[in-house]
Design a protein that fits this description.
single chain, alpha+beta, Gyrase A, domain 2, six-stranded mixed β-sheet, six-stranded antiparallel β-barrel
């Protein structure tokens, strides 16, 4: 009997997720009796919901409600891990330390910490998780497996000591690569921002950058730094810009961040991060029309770009 030709169902059944070390991310580790209440007065999400079985997405803002730091939080026993941008971790630690005052909180920067993204078919099942944003479980050795709290389609983040993460990957039959480009393109295709690469520090507003739809803001928890402006923007419906995915010729050089996007000579938006063929851009809603008219062409430099509403946004 001749060998059977594999079909698409076979490919789905045998496909494995991809694991990538996110070398642009680093960890802070918070401990102490007041760690949760300390975070509750600072971050945009409800720290009281943080538990070993649930992680959170949040931000730290200026008192004027402008973006400072992106935070992904997970709990391993008595330790709260904050997954943040590696190049800006020291600034985040400094700011948290200034707010600490007499609170019983320790704020450390573990040098053995790591963040690994596991994405693609079977990523949640590989770690015994359902595809529910924020679902988490402890791993041996003090690490956490967390379904990305922004969007379950992003897969799983492994957060904690590097040795514990390596052991968890090996148990799942996976090994992490060191090139984050594939994951970066994956999250761009989904339209999800990546910290200060996509949100201007001390200038960007969370609701323009889809933090509400990505589960990063609580409107019921009470006061936190920057809460007043964020709530006012929500309730007065004053959002005039949105972060959109944009597509363009994959053979062309991607536009640089902050490249203006023009429509008929008017500035309709500005580029953020990108890879060949896809990127993110902060677009002015007044210029986004649902039509394909010949004169409705957006350009970034000499490149034609096509704004695409991320699926999680729904109607605006």
């Amino acid at each position: 009997m001749p060998p059977r030709t594999p079909n698409s169902l076979d490919m789905i059944e045998t496909a494995k997720p991809t694991a990538t070390r996110l070398t642009g991310r680093a960890l802070l580790a918070l401990g102490g009796d007041d760690a949760v209440s300390f975070l509750q007065g600072l971050i945009t999400n409800d720290a009281a919901l943080l538990a070993p079985e649930r992680g959170l997405f949040a931000a730290l803002l200026t008192p004027q409600g402008k973006f400072l730091h992106e935070l992904i939080l997970a709990r391993a026993g008595d330790t709260i891990f904050i997954d943040t941008e590696a190049e800006r971790r020291a600034d985040l630690q400094r700011r948290l330390t200034l707010y600490r005052l007499r609170a019983k909180v320790t704020i450390a920067a573990p040098e053995d910490g790591a963040v690994v993204a596991v994405f693609g078919p079977g990523s949640t099942a590989a770690f015994g998780l359902d595809a529910v944003a924020g679902m988490a479980r402890d791993l041996p050795g003090g690490a956490v497996a967390l379904v990305d709290p922004r969007l379950a389609a992003l897969g799983v983040r492994l957060i904690g000591p590097a040795a514990a993460i390596e052991a968890a990957l090996a148990a799942a039959g996976l090994a992490a690569g060191d090139d984050p480009a594939a994951y970066d393109r994956f999250r761009l295709d989904l339209g999800v921002p990546d910290g200060s690469r996509d949100i201007a520090v001390d200038r960007g507003f969370l609701l323009e950058n889809n933090y509400e739809e990505l589960n990063g803001v609580s409107f019921t928890k009470g006061c936190y730094v920057g809460q007043e402006l964020t709530a006012r923007t929500k309730h007065r419906a004053t959002i005039k810009k949105r972060l959109f995915k944009v597509e363009f010729d994959p053979a062309a050089e991607p536009p640089e961040p902050d490249t203006p996007i023009l429509l008929g000579g008017h500035e309709a938006g500005a580029m953020r991060s990108s890879r060949p063929g896809v990127g993110l851009a902060l677009m002015r809603l007044e210029y986004l029309q649902e039509n394909d008219a010949d004169d409705h062409v957006f350009t970034a430099g000499n490149l034609v770009v096509r704004p695409c509403r991320p699926s999680f946004l729904g109607d605006l």
